[in-house]
Every structure is written in C-alpha cells, then in structure tokens.
Amino acid sequence: MIPQDKHIPPPDQPLRDRALDPNHSFIVQAPAGSGKTGLLIQRYLALLAEVENPEAVVAVTFTRKAMGEMRKRVLAALESAQGEAPSAPFEQSVWALARKVAERDQALEWNIRAYPARLRIQTIDALCASIVRDLPWRSRLGGEPRILEDAEPLYREAVHRLLEKEEDALACVLESLDNDVPRFEALLVRMLARRDQWLRHLTEEMDSASRLRRMASVLERLVENALAALRASIPRDLSEEIVALAGYAGANLAATGSSSPIAALAGLDSLPGDRVEDMLPWRGVAELLLTQAGAPRSRYTKKEGFPPGKGLAADMKERALALDLSDAFRVRLHDVRELPTPVYADRQWKVLDALIIVLRLAAAALRAVFLDHGAVDFVEVSRGALAALDREPSSDSALHPGQGIRHLLVDEFQDTSHAQILLFTRLTANWRAGDGRTLFLVGDPMQSIYGFREADVGLYLRAWKQGIANIPLEPLTLSANFRSQGQLVEWSNRIFPSVFSGVDDMAGAVDFKPSVPYKEAETSPCIGIHAYRNDGGEQEAEQVVALIQAARREHPTESVAILARARSHLAAILPRLRAARIPYRGVEIAPLAHRPVIQDLLALTRALLHPGDRVAWLAVLRAPWCGLTLQDLHSLVAGEREACILDLLRDECNAPISATTSSESPNGRLDPDGRLRAERVLRVLDSALRQRGRRPLRIAVERAWIALGGPACIEADEYPDTRAFFALLGDLESENLLDGNLLTERVSRLFAIPNLAEWQVEVMTIHKAKGLEFDTVILPGLERMPRVEEKPLLAWLEQPAISGEFDLALAPMTSPGDPEDPIYRYLCHLNAARSDHETSRLLYVAITRARRRLHLLSQLQVSKDDTVLTPNRRSFLAHLWSALASEFTASLEDNAPDFDLFHADLSDARDIVSGSNRGPVPIRHLPVDWTPPEAPAPFSLPNHPLAETILAPRQAPESMEIPWPGDAARSVGTLIHRILQQLAETDTWRAEQTWRKSAAWRAALRGLGVIEDEIEPALRRVIQAIELVMEDRRWHWIIDPRHTLPRNEYPLTGIVEGRIARGVIDRTFVDTHGVRWIIDYKTGRDGEGERAEFPDREQDRYREQLTRYADLFKGMESRTTWVGLYFPLSGGWRAWEVDGSM
Fold first, then answer.
1. CA-CA-CA-CA torsion sign (910, 912, 916, 917)
2. Distance linking the first and last C-alpha atoms of the chain
3. With a threshold of 0.70, does the pTM exceed it?
4. Of the four listed, 746, 838, 952, 1082, which is most buried by Cβ atoms within 10 Å?
5. Residues 6 or more apart whose Cβ sits within 8 Å of residue 572
6. Which Gene3D superfamilies has this protein been placed in (predicted)?
7. What average pLDDT is seen over the chain?
C-alpha cells in the first residue's frame, strides 16, 4: 500500500515518463482514477516544446467539456511557468515542461498567452469542420456549412420527399412492413441519423447480382471469423479430450440412427475447422457439452451418446463430467448455435436489395434537403471531411490537412466509431514510423459506454494490437489509482474480474485490468449493500434519504451523488428528497416541458404561430399573466366550437360594455374583471401579431411575454429555463424549422437547468457522471433494466475485412407474420451481446466514481417459498450476482424495514408527496391593474478597461451620417460574405454555377429571415454581385493562388494596448512581395449621386476597425501591413498602409 503523499511517485511512473518521449507513438490504457488527463497534458506540453509552430500539435477530444478542461489546464500550466517551481513531483514535471514551452514561445514569437487560439485543442466535430473549411471543394460541401445540433426535422422531411416518389424498391420495402408508413418513417429516420455507419458501404454502383455475391461473402467471413475465434478459445489440454469424447458419443448415436447433431461427430479425429461447412460438427460439439441454456452438462445419458454400463461407458462418462470449460470457450460454443447459414433466401434478398436502394435514395433526398436549408448535421460534416481526405496525399501537397500536423493526440479513444477511425487513418495516411510525426491515443476500454453513439471498443483493441494505418503503437497500461481510497480499489479488484469476460474480444468483451491504490485504505467500512423485497421502490427511496442524511451529518463538507442508469429509475427517489427537504442538483433530470413557465411560453408561441390553435389560445388566457377563470373561458367559447379564439376575444373586447355585462346576453359575456384582463392581453397580442414577419419570432415572443407580465409571474431561479426556451426558439427559426408541433417535440427533449446556489446532493445518470468523482456514491435500482429498443429496419454489423478496412453484414427486418430470419436474428444477437458487455463497463464507470464510500441498493425478487430469484441478465445486479449474491441475500434478511428510522421522520413528508391533507391550490395570476415596471437606467462601465473594445460600439465621426441597412439588405450582405468565402476557397468555380446555386441561395435568404415578398429582389442582388465579382480583375487578384498564408472569415482575438480586441477578418494573405493584406468586404450601396464619395466615406468609417485588425497581426508577426475595403456590388476598392498601432 502506498501512502497518500504527493512526493512519492506512483508505481507506474516509468511508464508515465516513457509516454512523454516525443519520438514515439503510443496507445495508453488509463483505468479510472489513473490521471489520464494529467498525462495527456504532459504529453501535449512536451510536444509543443519540440515543434516550429503550436498548430503542429493537435489534441482531439470528444466533448466540449473535455476540450475546455484540457485547454484551461494547459493555459494554467503556461501561466504557472512564470513563477517558482512547485515541490510535488507531478506539478514539478508539468512546470518544467511548461517552462520549456514558454522558452520556445519566446524564441519563435508564438505569443500563445495573447493568442491562445493557436493551441489546437478541439473536439472531433471541430476537427472535421476545419478540414471541410480548408478543403471545401474536396469535401463537396462548398465551405463550412451551418451545423445543426438536432437535424431530425430534416431527416423527416427527407423521408416525406422519398415517400412522394414512385419507386419499385420503396413499394417492396413498404409491403414487407405491411404498408405501415408511420413505422417505416420512424425506422428510416433512425437509419438516416446513423448513416455514417452504413452509407459508405452502399455507395458503390453495382447490379443486384453483384451486390448479392458481395453480401454473401461478407456473411461467410462473419461465420468463419466466429468459428476461428471458437477454435482459438479452446484450452490446449482439452482439445484431444473433446475430440475423443465427441467421436465416442457420435459413433454411439450414429449407430442408432439418431437425428441428434452429435451423431455428425462420428469418426471425428480432430477439432472441426473454421469453414462454413464446419458449422454442423461444431453444433454437435455444443449439443454434446452444453445444455440448451448454455451451461456445462451436469449429467450424460444415452440421449447424448453415453449409454449406461461399466468399463468404457463409465470411464467416458466420468471423463465428460470432468471437463473444465472456460467461460470464453463455453460462451462461444453456445453462440455457434445461433450462426446462420450464409445464404440469403430469395424473398429476404429481394427485400434487402430493395432496402439498399431505398437507403441510397433517402440519403440523396437528405442531401437535397440539406442544400435547400443551407444546413447539415454533424454526420454530414464528418462525411465531408472523409471525402476531402479520400485521396492519396503527395508529400509536397500543402492542401492536405495532415501536412501541417506533426503530432496528433486523441483523448477517450475507447469511444471512437468506425467513421472516426477512418478519419484518423486518412489524416495520417502518409505518415511513417520514424519520420518525426507521432500519434498518441489514450483511453480505457473498461470505460467504453457510448455504444448508442456508435462507439466500438473493438476498434481500441484492434489499434492496441495492430496500430493505426502505417503507424505502430507502443502499448502502455497505467495502474496507479489516485482517486479512490485503498479499500475501494481493493474491493473493485476483487469484484470486477467476475463482472468482465476475462478476454479481449472484437465483439466488445474486454479484460479487467486491476489498479494499485495510491491512497491509504480507511479503517471504517466503505461498501454498503442494501437489499429489499420488491415494493415499488418506496423502501429503497427512504433508505437513500437516510444514507444522505447520515453522510451529511458525519461529513458535512463532502460531496454526495446519486447515480442512476436511467432517469426513470429515480421516480420514487426524487419526491422523497423534496419531502425530506434535501436540496439536490439534478443534471439533465427534470424535463423542461414539465415547468409551468415553459408550458405557458409554449402556448404563447403556438398562439402567435397559428391564430387557429384553440388549445394554445385558451392556455394563454388561462396563464398567470391573464388569469381568466374557467367560467370566463366557458363564457367566451361556449357554443362557438368552430370560431377562432382570437376573433371571439376581439368581438368581446370591442363590444359595448353594457352588452357584455348584461345577464340576458346570449353568449354569457365576461364579467368586468375578466374583461379588463382580456383587454390588456389582447392589446399585447394584437401588437405582436401585427409585427409577425417584421422581426424574428424569438424577439416577438419574448417581447410579448415581457409586455404580458411573464417575468412578474416567475421566481428568479426560473429565468435560466426561459433563456433555454428562447435560445431553442431562435435556433429553430435560424434553421427555418418553425412549426408548433416540432417546437413542442424539441422542448420535450430539453431539461431544466439546475439553479440552486447550494445543494447537498448531485443527481444524474451514469453517462453524465463520466469523468466526475464524488466522496460518497449511491447506486440505486441495480435490479432495473433499460427500456427495450425497437428492432431496427436493418440489422448491420461492421467487421474487419481482409483489406484492412471494414465490411458491413446486413439483414432486413423480418416481415410481420413471417418466421424470424436467422441472419437478422444473429446480427441482433451479436449487437445484444455487445450491449451486455457495455452494461458491465457502465457498472464499472458508476462504481469508480466513488472516492471514499459506495452504497449499492437493489430490490430482490423473492418467490413464495422465500427463495431469492436470479436477477434479469440485463440488469446491473445480474453482472454482480456471481460475486455478491451472498452479500445481497444477507442484506435482505437483515434489512427488515425500520419504521422508527425511516418512517417516523418522513410521515409528514409523505403526505406532502402523496397530496393528502392538501387544501385547494390557489390560482396564481397578476392583479387586474398590473402595469409593467419602468425600465432601469442604462448600464455603463466608463472606467472599465474592456468597456471600449467589448461593450461599447465603435462610433463613426459625428459629421458622418450612416445609412444602416434594412433586414433584407443585411441578409443579402451576410449571404454575399458566405459566397465570397466559398469563392476564395474554391479555385474551380465556373460562371454557370451561379444559376445552379440560386436555389440554395434562395433557401439561405429564407433561413436568414427575409420575408417572402423580398426573397426574389434580394436574390437578384446576390446574383448581380457574384456575376460582377467573377468578372472583376481586382477580385481575381484578391484570391490569387500565389498568395501565401491565406485565411477566410478568420476569427482573431488578442490584446491591443492592454485591452482585449477581437474581430473576424473576411480575407487575409501575404502577397508575393511579403506584404500582409487584410481585406474587408462591404456590401453597402451608394445613394444617388454618391457613387464617387461612398467608398471614401466607408474608408473613414472603418479605418479604426481595420487598424485594430492590423494591430492584432502585428502581435504575431513583423511585416509590412496593408488593409483594403472591397465593394463587390460596385467593384470599388480602397487600400492604405497601416504604419503601427493606434
């Protein structure tokens, strides 16, 4: 045991030192708590100290959170290098590495502290986007498109377009699904979201017969690989024994004419091979050695080929019972029963062939939808990056993105997908061992838990053994655990060997690697096991409350977390926490749509979108900002089932007061209080409806909500939820996807933002807890299972091909009423086995979040005779059962409910939860005479050093009158900027492409919010500008390929005269004379008679801004700098030299 002393190096320190060698490539397994991020940062700093420019070192992560954490720690290390060296070994190593980087920074004038964006620490999506931006033509995306976080509405639009086509293949697929169009739509939408897994395998043009031969050969290799793995798993000392027993039993059964598969083993003199024809004898071996459930046989009879008797018969039976089958061999032998014959039946192939055609058509329809909307999803960006890299890079090609990269580091490598592996392979295609370029992959296969995102842990295992492309990787396994106290680490080392399979497997099984505790073991017990009879979760929830209260009482400053496999598993626990008044922070736990303020905002938005949405309008009138009673609503709409609520409201508010208050009125009008409330709300909504189309819906809804008094109806901690709603509304509008039903569906996917300033407990799913740690971890609901996913339209499995790439095995869903197809069943079986292995890894992630204490809670199923039943195999409890069954059973016996402990303090709380003794709930609404408060005085920061550059807008000279453009003009300018960027990045643009692109430009203008009446005039201005630009010699000089260091739409941030300055430069390059040019495009138009004066006025207006841009560059380089204004609508040009900083 190693004491908790930061000055003592961990036992694996030599491996950590080895990982810092900048001349070698490594793949590192870093188990939980082993300091993976720290090692990654050390490696990154070590490589920075060796390169000529910081952009040559690229670190890739999979989440923005991980990217931000790594960047923050690297910058902190560079900052600390300015001070004294720390004393602890790890911090001292980081300081020394950062010191070398700082020296190189100064020597080569990198100026990283002023320009931290030069550190290329980015997500995998950002890396793909940068490749697309640098190679727009090769990517086939024409530059960096707008990327949607959620593209499902576009998937649905693509499917709807597909369904409008008359295609024989489409009819065949629909017929196979009994023409269940909604189900087909849902399944195909899911397939489009995952097309990065299958589309690249289906793009090759070939006829049906060729496709059939290719698919059959893939199935054959799948079967043969399974048989080869089975043969390899047999212990050497058992091979001859199994052959002898199989030959004996087979001969006995063959002599009796038995139809048992064992009879096929007669005359066997060696183990079956790994060819397709060997499946039958292997099935005979499985029948011989295993029960139908896959367990080793505990008895042998004449049915298995072992007749009763003495002598040889008794001896052979004894030898069979003595066989000790390893788990790996037993599992693979049982799986051979599922192996399909690799031949597609005629009907099955007809459906599969049609489905392949339909999928290709759906992908093409989706690309057309993307083009119309001017937006794509992350999958399309990834495919664009792969397309850009899909050619052999020459050694002198400056265009290849991998050329400038000397070192590539990949974090969380165990969660890579096939498409991402292909990206890394192509990015490093011309790298060679020993050429000074290195690859550093770090991760932990025991923590690969993102299979639902197409992560495949088998890719990590393959890279461990074979490397990546041409790069051999030296494997390193870390062992020190810096997170958990010794007792927890030793307990995990004892439990998890039985949880994991014990063998690395391309199908997703990984071997457990034990850790060495760095912290001392505590003397008090740290593992709590709590079992209960199945009672709906009530007793478990109360036990969770008791555990939290005990932890807070004994260790008030320590962190406590409840981790659940799924949000639904917290249904009984969260009400108990609220009832016990335990403040908790739920991370993506509470659905945003359940919040009353969001329900009211959703109703307001739907009402403004569609005056005919009666439910939305009634909800608006019932909301607290209006507060009409149910009687008022009934009086307003009674007998008017077809009328528009807005029209009824207008009629009511415009009618004479005497008529509305008359008791003889046939419509039963509003009472005076209700009328006053309705009039105030109608004024606001009428104004909002008149402005609809003149301003973005997000602004219209927010202004209406504020004018109605929405902010006065909520608490301060609800504001973050409203901001999330308005942000979503803005995103949907920018994506041109405004629809009430879609908005409702998208809101249902969001979660309330935790607003507590203080909390005692964190509650989250295990996936969200990845990378975190807590002093006490509580894992409830170990017996619970995840929901069963609907079977896919197409079952597929990627597997290694002979070429080194991957092949795709496919099978279509079985038609309703038909027998289940064995190929489809087998592929689903393999995917289920992968999911089962991932469950083990998810359990490992959950348990290793604990630093000091761990509590495992589970309900047990007990039969009528008090026998504890075996848990469902898909549950966490089943994975722990072989190691902890006795502990859980003992806990069940000792854990009779202590009502004095659990119930006495919570009896009142349960009344709160259940609603008993609850009086009438008062309706919240604003007073009838409510008026908006006065706006506060303008906020200013006159003495703040950042006020000028960040908060205050740049002012033009007082004598200059600036004609600000309207909405359509601004949108035209935005689109022209995008097109000029594409023109600058694409050297193969032809004039005829202008009209071909007009449909996409029309969609882009629509997406920018240009109203329909102004679309065509705006489009004509765009086309006119681009045609003029293509004929302009000045423009062709601006994009001259002889220029060096070109950048377009270049974001730059730095410090100028002690203040933060930032900007996005339209075009910059260094000309053949070594002059740095900074060019800004200006799409404003000169007025009548101002053609000569307009460029001069614009030069005066933007002189200060361009000088600030030049100052940003002067912090990075020393060269002559010129700036220019280019006017694409007129061909105008103004340029001048910038002498120095302002």
1. positive
2. 63
3. yes
4. 1082
5. 536, 537, 538, 540, 541
6. 3.90.320.10, P-loop containing nucleotide triphosphate hydrolases, PCRA, domain 4
7. 84
Contact 175, 181 (CB under 8 A): no
Those residues with Cβ within 8 angstroms of residue 458's Cβ, 6 or more apart along the chain or in another chain: 505, 506, 507, 508
Phi, psi of 818 (to 5 degrees): -90, 155
Tokens of 330: 């037993």
Residue with tokens 């489809």: 824
Q: What is the mean pLDDT of residues 145-152?
A: 84
Distances (CA, A) of 506 to 139, 221, 424, 465, 503: 31, 14, 19, 11, 10
HSE toward the beta carbon, residue 838, CA cutoff 13 A: 24
Q: Which residues are annotated as a binding site?
A: 30-37
Residue 658, C-beta contacts closer than 8 angstroms, at least 6 positions apart: none
**d(Cα 370, Cα 382) in Å, to the nearest integer?**
14
Strand-pair partners of 375:
146
The answer for residues whose C-beta is within 8 angstroms of residue 336's C-beta and 6 or more apart is 226, 227, 230, 279, 282, 283, 285, 286
Binding residue numbers for ATP = 30-37
Both tokens of 722, joined, read 């409203």
**Confidence category of residue 392, pLDDT binned at 50, 70, 90:** low
Instruction: State whether residue 588 is helix, strand or coil.
Output: coil
Q: Determine the Cα–Cα distance for residues 1049 and 1030; give it in Å rounded to an integer.
A: 19
Tokens of 515: 């850790």
Give the DSSP letter of residue 795: E
- The residue assigned the tokens 């190593």 is 93
CA–CA dist 462, 806 (Å, integer): 12
Pairing label, strands 438-443, 26-29: parallel
Tokens of 74: 């690297």
1012-1048 in b/e burial notation, b at 16+ Cβ within 10 A?
A: eebbeebbebbbebbeebeebeebeebbeeebeebbb
pLDDT tens string 533-566: 877 788 899 999 999 999 999 999 999 999 999 9
pLDDT for 463 equals: 93
Task: Report the alpha-carbon distance of residue 1025 to residue 969 in Å, rounded.
Answer: 13
Q: Are 375 and 152 in contact (CB under 8 A)?
A: no
What length is written for the chain? 1142
pLDDT of residue 975: 84
Q: Are strands 1121-1127 and 1076-1081 parallel, antiparallel or unpaired?
A: parallel
Element housing 57 (H / E): strand 57-61
236-255 and 312-321 are packed helices; what angle lies between their axes, rounded to 10 degrees?
130
